[in-house]
Specification:
heterodimer, A: about 150 residues, alpha+beta, Sufe protein. Chain: A, 3-stranded antiparallel β-sheet, B: alpha/beta, Aspartate Aminotransferase, domain 1, 2 domains, 7-stranded mixed β-sheet, 16 helices
C-alpha cells in the first residue's frame, strides 16, 4: 500500500490517541463488519472551544492516520470552525490517500460530527449546519437506539 | 530496516541459486525455440521433455499427463472452464468448496454466469470439507468436483483421496488446486486418485510465471489456448523454457529434502502457535491444529485490524499477510475466514505467517515478542477493546 510519509507518521505516532473522562461530547462511527470504527472524545469549554480531543480507532493505517490528523485539525477551534474540517482537508493535510482508502477519511469527519452532535444534545444547543449523524453507534445507556 | 524476517512464503518464495543456475543457459546460449526443427531448437525441446519426465515422476504420473502453464491460476482456470464445457452434454453441475483460492472460486462464478450450476460445500470450524457433504451434493449431472488440497490462508489439508473417491463413485471428475502443497507435503497425484492437479513453481523456490496442470490420460478438456501445437495441442504458445527448467529443478530439490524441510517448518510453526496462544490474550488459531501445512500459522487477534497489524510488524522487519478487507482492497474480509465461521470483526484481525526453510527459531521468538508488543499497542488504540474492558455491549451487536 503506497501511503505517504505523513500517513505513516500519523499511523506510527498517532496524535491525541486516548480517552477523555466525562467528555463534553463523544461519537462513535463506522462498523466492525467493514473493519473501521472510530470514536472521538471532546472536552469543550463554556466558550465553545475544543480544549482537548482524543480518539480511538479500530481500522487500517489510513483510518488511524485520518483520525489522528482530524483531531489535530479541530483541536483549539470553536465548534463552528471544527464543523468546517472536511474529509478533503484531512486528506490534503496527510498529502493524500490511496484511492481505495479515501472512504476512511469520511469516517473521521463523521466521528467529529457525531461527537459534536452528542455535545450539542447534552447541552441543549443547536450547532448551525450540524446534522444528526447517520451512523453514530456510540453506546450510551441514556441513548435510545432509534435505528 | 536492517532486520528482515520473511514470513510470507505462502505468497511467494525465494528462487534457489541452483534453480537460477539451471535457468540461465536457456536465456543465453540455449535460447532456441523447442518448436524449431533444427538441432538448436531441438536441444530446448529435449530439455523440457526431460523436465516433464522428472516432474511427472515426482507427482507419480506419466510425462504426457503434465502440461506446462503460466501460473497456478491459469492451471485452475483451464481445469475448470475447459472441463466444464467439454462435459456439458453430460451435465452442467460443478461442486467446489467455500474456501477455494480465488483462481477457483472466481472461475466458478464465471461459469455460473454462463449457465453452470455450482455448489459450494461448507467447511467445519477448522476448515475441513466433509466427505459426507460431498456425497450429499453429488448428482447425476455433476461433472466436476474441485477442492483445494491445502488452503492458502489457513493451511488446512483436505481429505482429497476420500473426496476424489466419492466423486468418482458418482461419475464426476476430481480436480485439486495443490499450489500450496506441492513440495511441502508428499503430493502424489496417482495415490490421491485425482484427475487433475494444479501447481505453481514460485511456491516451492522456483521462478514466477510458470505452473503446471496434471491432466489424467482420458480426461477430455478443450484446448485452453488456440495457436500452435505446443503441449499436445492443448495449450498453444512458445514454452517458457527457462521457467520450466527452473520449475523442474526446484521440484527436484524440494522433493529431495521434503521430509526434513517439513519437519523443520513444522517444529517452528508449532513453537510459534504454542507461544502465541499461551502469551497473547484474546487470540485464536484459524485452521486445524495438526491437519495443516507445515509452515502455516494463521491467527485472529480480537479488537485489532489486520492491515494495521501488518504495517506495524513490517516496521519491525517482519513480513506477513492478512485476510482483512483493508489489506486486500475489498470491503469484505477473507471468504475463507468467514467460511470457518469467524465474525467479520474477528476476520479483520487475522494474520497469516508462513514459514520456510530460511526461518530460524530466533526469528520465531523475535516475531512472538513483536506480535505481543504490537497487539498491546493496537488494542490501546481500539474502541472495541475499550468497550470490552469496560464491559459494554460489543459495537458489532448494535445495528
Amino acid at each position: 500500500m503506497a501511503y505517504s510519509d505523513k500517513v505513516m507518521d500519523h499511523f506510527s505516532n498517532p496524535r491525541n490517541m486516548g480517552e477523555i473522562d466525562n467528555p463534553s461530547g463523544v461519537g462513535t462511527v463506522g462498523n466492525a463488519q467493514c473493519g473501521d470504527i472510530m470514536r472521538v472524545y471532546f472536552d469543550i469549554d463554556d466558550a465553545g472551544i475544543i480544549r482537548d480531543v482524543k480518539f480511538k480507532t479500530f481500522g487500517c493505517a489510513a483510518a488511524v492516520a485520518t483520525s489522528s490528523m482530524a483531531t489535530e485539525l479541530v483541536k483549539g477551534k470553536n465548534v463552528q470552525d471544527a464543523l468546517k474540517v472536511t474529509n478533503k482537508a484531512v486528506c490534503e493535510a496527510l498529502d493524500g490517500l490511496p484511492p481505495v482508502k479515501v472512504h476512511c477519511s469520511l469516517l473521521a469527519e463523521e466521528a467529529i460530527h457525531a461527537a459534536l452532535w452528542d455535545y450539542a444534545e447534552k447541552n441543549g444547543i443547536a450547532i448551525d449546519g450540524l446534522k444528526k449523524p447517520k451512523s453514530d453507534i456510540h453506546e450510551d445507556e441514556s441513548e435510545d437506539e432509534e435505528y | 530496516m536492517d532486520k528482515l524476517i520473511y514470513l510470507d512464503n505462502a505468497a511467494t518464495t525465494s528462487v534457489l541459486p541452483a534453480v537460477v543456475d539451471e535457468m540461465i543457459p536457456y536465456f543465453t546460449d540455449g535460447f532456441g525455440n523447442p518448436s524449431s526443427l533444427y538441432e538448436f531448437g531441438q536441444r530446448a525441446r529435449a530439455a523440457i521433455t526431460d523436465a516433464r519426465v522428472r516432474i511427472a515422476a515426482h507427482l507419480g504420473v506419466d510425462a504426457p499427463e503434465v502440461y506446462f502453464t503460466g501460473s497456478g491460476t491459469e492451471s485452475d482456470n483451464w481445469a475448470l472452464k475447459e472441463t466444464a464445457f467439454a462435459y456439458q452434454d453430460k451435465g452442467r453441475h460443478i461442486i467446489t468448496s467455500s474456501i477455494e483460492h480465488h483462481a477457483v472460486s472466481h472461475t466458478c462464478a464465471w461459469l455460473e454466469k454462463r449457465g453452470f450450476e455450482v455448489t459450494y460445500l461448507p467447511v467445519d470450524a477448522e476448515g475441513i470439507v466433509s466427505v459426507h457433504s460431498l456425497v450429499d451434493a453429488l448428482r447425476d449431472d455433476t461433472t466436476l468436483v474441485s477442492v483445494i488440497l491445502a488452503n492458502n490462508e489457513i493451511g488446512t489439508i483436505q481429505p482429497i483421496k476420500e473426496l476424489a473417491e466419492a466423486a468418482h463413485a458418482r461419475g464426476a471428475l476430481f480436480h485439486t488446486d495443490a499450489v500450496q502443497a506441492v513440495a511441502h507435503l508428499p503430493v502424489n497425484a496417482a495415490e490421491l486418485g485425482v484427475d487433475m492437479l494444479s501447481a505453481s513453481a514460485h511456491k516451492f523456490h522456483g521462478p514466477k510465471g510458470v505452473g503446471l496442470l496434471y491432466i489424467k490420460k482420458g480426461v477430455k478438456t478443450r484446448s485452453f489456448m488456440d495457436g500452435g501445437a505446443q503441449e499436445r495441442k492443448r495449450r498453444a504458445g512458445t514454452e517458457n523454457v527457462p521457467g520450466i527448467m527452473g520449475m523442474a529443478k526446484a521440484l527436484d530439490l524440494g522433493m529431495a529434502d521434503l521430509a526434513s524441510r517439513a519437519a523443520h517448518d513444522q517444529e517452528l510453526r508449532d513453537r510459534l502457535i504454542d507461544r502465541v496462544l499461551a502469551e497473547v490474550e484474546h487470540v485464536r488459531l484459524n485452521g486445524h491444529r495438526t491437519q495443516r501445512l507445515p509452515g502455516n500459522a494463521n491467527f485472529s487477534f480480537e479488537f485489532v485490524e489486520g492491515e494495521s497489524l501488518l504495517l506495524t510488524l513490517e516496521q519491525k522487519g517482519i513480513l506477513a499477510s492478512s485476510g482483512s478487507a483493508c489489506a486486500s482492497g475489498s470491503l469484505d474480509p477473507s471468504h475463507v475466514l468467514l467460511a470457518i465461521g469467524l465474525p467479520h470483526e474477528i476476520a479483520h484481525g487475522s494474520l497469516r505467517l508462513s514459514l520456510g526453510e530460511e526461518t530460524t527459531a530466533a526469528d520465531i521468538d523475535y516475531t512472538v515478542e513483536a506480535i505481543k508488543e504490537v497487539v498491546v499497542r493496537l488494542r490501546a488504540m481500539s474502541p472495541l477493546y475499550e468497550d470490552f474492558v469496560k464491559g459494554r455491549k460489543p459495537i458489532s451487536a448494535v445495528k
